[in-house]
Amino acid sequence: MGKGGVVLLATPPAFRPMHVEYAVAKGVHVFMEKSMAVDIPGVKRLMKAGEEAKKKNLKIAGGLMSRHSKHLEACIEQIHKGVIGDIVTAWAYREHGPVGYKPRQPGWSELEHQIRNYSCFTWVNGTFLEDWLIHNIDVCCWVKGGWPVSCQGQGGRQVRTEADQLFDHYAAEYTFADGTRLMAQGRHMVGCWSFFGDVVHGTKGCAHLGEGVAKPRIFKGWKQTDENVIWQSDGSPSNPYQHEHELLFDAIRNDKPYNETERCAKTCVTTILGRMACESGQMITWDEAMASTAELSPGLDRFTKDSEPPVKPDEKGDYPVAIPGKSKPI
To answer: What domains can be seen in the chain, in order of their start residue?
Structure first.
């Protein structure tokens, strides 16, 4: 990578902090896809790299593209103006069919098998809550204008039978400093109610928005019916995936300040906090999460294609799965 170039980092999330760190050391601008880290040591490593990028005048963009949806920006601007009053609750959803799984093929090492199925192994992607539901959790925190101070939750494997570590349902209840709450639900099962988006309730109305909602709408009261609509996006073409890159390259070409590392890192902390709470069954505070020194994949920097992964199957071919009430928050 040459100085002043741009690198697009889209490998599984476990590798993101070291790749960002390396790119910054080489003097390269960065686009980093979500998620940006899977554990707190990784988050801190990422934030340190982001600070170093500022010193070098390097630009860093993060792949939480909903922040750059023009329709969503317009909707949240209305909310921040007080159209629905004070925010009381926020609800983030990602409910759909199963996450895919590829059976191990001849010639694949155990490490290759897990990386090819990175959505299914916690050390690689940080769980469904972090790598899939992250966008709508991020949108709710954007609406709220802050980050939660604690979380409690639950989850498990009810119908999933694939040999991996993936919970097939999550419910994480976050609390903000003022006592208001964010409920994040994730489920990937066949034949269940599906919804992909956010619902925000204020003292005077509500909003239907988020990733998965093409045309955000705001309602008077709390019934989301056509006659109660008081604002909606105009539906004009808007591609947040394109716009996030336009903003990055404009900043590079015109030497504008541009560094999304801290915000993206705090969104990752929020989802890691949720994972800790759901997997352990405990109430975890933001400060407790940030004090964690546990790494999901110790020594990842030294991995080669022949390395042993941090989790292995037992004699039956099953992998360790978190058990709420028994598993420690890591």
So the answer is: 70-232 (3.30.360.10)
